[in-house]
Automatic annotation (TrEMBL):
UniProt organism field: Kribbella voronezhensis
Coiled coil segments of this chain: 83-120
Keywords for the protein's UniProt record, in alphabetical order: Coiled coil, DNA-binding, Transcription, Transcription regulation
GO MF entry, a single one: DNA binding
Keyword Glycoprotein: no
HTH merR-type domain sequence ranges: 1-57
UniProt superkingdom: Bacteria
Record's protein name: DNA-binding transcriptional MerR regulator
Matches recorded under InterPro entries: DNA-bd_dom_put_sf (IPR009061), MerR-type_HTH_dom (IPR000551), MerR_fam (IPR047057), Tscrpt_reg_MerR_DNA-bd (IPR015358)
Gene3D superfamilies: 1.10.1660.10
Length: 122
């Protein structure tokens, strides 16, 4: 299948497929005329990468999931390395939540102080 067919079937743009390829997530074949060719299995890979990127994983963090699929598993997240990648992303989200919670508390304090000061001055 050609790149445009893969993109359409997987629900992404051709540009996204080229990006995934540049990140080493796809390894297309080449026709004699230089056109890229993809296997039917690449549709599942592209869909999985798209889903993982939407969860905030980086392209590099998707490697274990892709390797899991390529190993013949029906799901990309049943391998130990995939589970580790999930845990790593959850820890990153937890850190970000803590940072945002602290930021919100600081902003709330500043707002309360500013409102209090405003009501004290004529």
């Amino acid at each position: 299948m050609h790149i445009s067919d893969l993109a359409a079937e997987a629900g992404v743009t051709v540009k996204a497929v080229r990006y995934y390829e540049s990140q080493g997530l796809l390894k297309p074949g080449r026709e004699p005329n230089g056109y890229r060719t993809y296997r039917a299995e690449d549709v599942a890979v592209v869909r999985e990468v798209k889903a993982l990127l939407s969860l905030g994983l980086t392209a590099e963090q998707t490697y274990p999931f892709i390797e899991c699929l390529r190993a013949g598993n029906d799901r990309a997240d049943v391998c130990p390395a995939s589970l580790t990648a999930y845990r790593t992303r959850i820890a990153e989200v937890d850190r970000r939540i803590a940072e945002l919670t602290e930021l919100r508390a600081r902003l709330t304090d500043l707002l309360a102080d500013a409102e209090s000061w405003r009501t004290r001055t004529p």
